[in-house]
Fold this sequence. Notes:
The structure holds 2 protein chains of 2 kinds.
Chain A: E1 2-8, E2 11-17, E3 26-31, H1 37-45, E4 52-57, E5 60-62, H2 67-72, E6 75-78, H3 90-95, H4 104-122, H5 137-150, E7 155-159, H6 167-182, E8 186-191, H7 194-200, E9 203-208, E10 211-217, H8 223-231, E11 250-260, E12 266-276, E13 280-284, H9 291-299, E14 306-311, E15 314-317, H10 324-329, E16 332-335, H11 339-343, H12 350-353, E17 365-366, E18 369-370, H13 372-385, H14 402-415, E19 420-424, H15 432-447, E20 451-455, H16 459-465, E21 468-473, E22 476-482, H17 488-495, E23 499-500, E24 514-515
Parallel strand pairs in A: 3-8, 3-9, 6-7, 7-8, 13-20, 13-21, 16-19, 19-20
Antiparallel strand pairs in A: 1-2, 1-4, 4-5, 9-10, 11-12, 11-14, 14-15, 17-18, 21-22, 23-24
Helix pairs in contact in A: 13-14, 14-15
Chain B: H1 8-33, H2 38-51, H3 53-78, H4 86-104, H5 110-139, H6 143-166, H7 188-194, H8 207-224, H9 226-236, H10 238-243, H11 248-264, H12 266-275, H13 286-296, H14 301-324, H15 330-346, H16 352-362
Amino acid sequence: MLGISKRFGPVQANADVDLTVGRGTVHGIVGENGAGKSTLMSVLYGFYTSDSGSIKVFGQDATIRNAHEAIALGIGMVHQHFMLVETLTALENVMLGAEPHVLLHKAEVQVRSRLTELMESTGLKVALDALVGDLSVGDRQRLEILKALYRGAKVLILDEPTAVLTPQETEQLFGVLALLREQGTTILLITHKLKEVMRLCDRVTVMRAGRVVEVVAIADATIEGLAEAMVGRKVQMGRVGDSEKPPGAVLLQARGIHVRDLMRVVRLHDLNIELRAGEIVGIAGVSGNGQSELLEVLSGLLAPARGSLSVGGQQFEAGAWVDPRTARNLGVAHVPEDRHERAMIMSFAAWESAVLGYEWLPHYCRGGWMLHPEMRKSTVDMMERFDVRPRDAQLQSSSFSGGNQQKLVLARELGQAPKVLLVGQPTRGVDIGAIEFIYGQLRAMRDAGCAVLVVSSELDEILALSDRVIVMNQGHVAGELPIGDCNENTLGMLMIGGGSTKAPDTAKADPVPKVAV
Amino acid sequence: MAQQPLPRWADLVVLPIVNLAVALLAAGFMVWLVGQNPLEVITVLVHGAFGTTRGLSYTLYYATTFVFTGLAVAVAFHGGLFNIGGEGQAILGGLGTGLVALWLSAILPAWLMLPLMLLAGALFGMVWAAVPAYLQAYRGSHVVITTIMFNFLASSLLVYLLVNHLKVPGNMAVESAPFADSAKLPSMHTFMGWLGIEWPNSPFNTSVFLAVLAALGVYFFLWHTRFGYDLRATGSSARAAAYAGINPNHQVILAMGLSGALAGLVGMNEVAGVNGRLMLEYVSGAGFTGIAVSLMGRSHPFGIVLASILFGALFQGGAEVAFEVRGFSRDMVVMLQGFIVLFSGAMAYVLAPSVAWVVNGLRGNRAPQAVKGAAHG
């Protein structure tokens, strides 16, 4: 790709971008949200046509006007949000739009044999007859890759492939990608996780504000160097400063929380947890082991079958559980895991989303009448304090990048000086620069005496933030450790159920989990 | 994929006008195909609808009813619900209006009677919508299905009551006894007469003020009150609303209840304002036209008022055309309405990219930016 430029209105998404990727290599493209990575890949995949510039594929000049032409040229893409039909089987999804025979069952036989071969040679194992809706996220991603390979992809574009994966699934994926590289597939990896770039890529292109700022061979790159190139200044990642004061009074205590889902599957199993003033408690675990339910129970979104909760001087029992509004009234703020579904209303203007959940406060609403000037003004304040860009309160919520949406949500939730702060995936889909800022804000809340609970599927994040770590596995507390005893190995082992600290209701658990694999 | 967003003003003003123009062109083509002169037809139509105070009166009379049903659809729509039951709720509204009038108009004065009729109409419409709403909120029956069924129930109920209980014995027509004068909403002719203005006699009556108030009320309710905020939040994202502590089930009931009440106000125009008695067919499809009106008005009260006037003009002008132009039947007018619904409702955004291209081109690419295709209307 040479001299690619693309603008959207006043935004120059790509400015004179050159990208050269060697055959059979893994090439990383890193950059913050809005740096132009996705636009560049969309140009390559035919979603957008560039305003200027040219593309050569395997030495041939190419014009790519749509995805079909990209596929015909051997370019396949695995999107961050999977393009699969949940009600069809894995096999049918691969076949969809590329049926080799008019008679479906004959087509199926052919596709199945090709796929079996492919799965054999690449190690991408997927249950072909399972409904996609029943597959795990990792399985779905493998299926997407299979789909691309089936269509003859020799260049594979992966957009943030690990954003939704557990550490174990990530490992598996990297194994597969390494194998594919050996077999001659060219891989373009879009990500902002620099560790992964360092592990897997051969070369890396760093983009910032629509331009290429650096192209280096991985041997010559360091994480710090790449981060600096991405953000344009030095960034402090990792862990800074433990809490100086020991944790204070218990601000939230939940006992015997038992949750069954609609299918009667137990999601939380008699779980006990307490949060103290001035500490950050990290909940680690492979996603789907009850962390989401725990957040929902504590914030009042989900009533447990059994259990009790004591918060803000009030006691709640199963059957008369706290509701979200009461929880907010009692000083419990909640930054939900799912920003798009829960934290904001994407079709609302920013100033309307910025009061969501607090729209009844006398500051925003008097006698049922919404005070628009006050709402706008306080949104502008939030945007100032949390550096939300663009600083336009009128803009529709969905128009902000993920990081800026998250900053606005944090500004809203932190703005009411909560006593308990529940945060799910604080930095999912957020840039490095913003991550640093968000970590700083969470630590500031802790230092101000707030009890903070952080649920994250990123071990790095847990290790960087927490003062105490609780590992969850299948709805149980698999272990509870002070941060001093934590590292990726101990936590990883607990996460996959390899160890257990008995009697989870004793606050001080055995620091060295008994490993039983 | 690479679609540029339309500026808001273009979305609200330019696009509907372009859609309307295309619909007229398409309809004009059809008119030409059957051997008529499109120009003549449109001239007669516009003149019939707006050319005389009498024509204008009819146009606004029709528009009044469409404002009520259009607003009803819009309120439900903002709550994330598709209320197809405007027809039935309007029938029930008329029934409520008429029943209190029959019951009390002989003994109550107008200043007490008319507000009572208004309340009864709104209440009947509300209750008729609340049943499907309850079934949707707590029993998971889809509101589209139940409201459609409730249309049939309402129409049967009206026929049953009229034929078996309300019809004046010995009278051939299926209609109730006339109300006393205190239950008749002043016509525009009368009202303008009070002001000393000459205004032709027509069904156009003072319920038009009620329609304007309803439109204003809906606007302020939806965008300036907390209840409207909660309603729109639920309609846009039920999960986000639950997170905010809003009970989505309550919002379903509220949205449908209000929607039904608005549809029920049709009774004030048709029953209290025009007929002065209960008859069959006083809604005659206005509930469904309300869906088109709401679609075309982008579910915004201001747009709905404009769209109502347009549809009122089509009804009135169309009748005029069918009368004036030889060989041009009323069905041709229905076709024209069909085209307008098609281009302004179902295909409202088909032309959006072209309009965006032109508008953004004219403004020299200063259009509000799209952040990675995330923004859409």
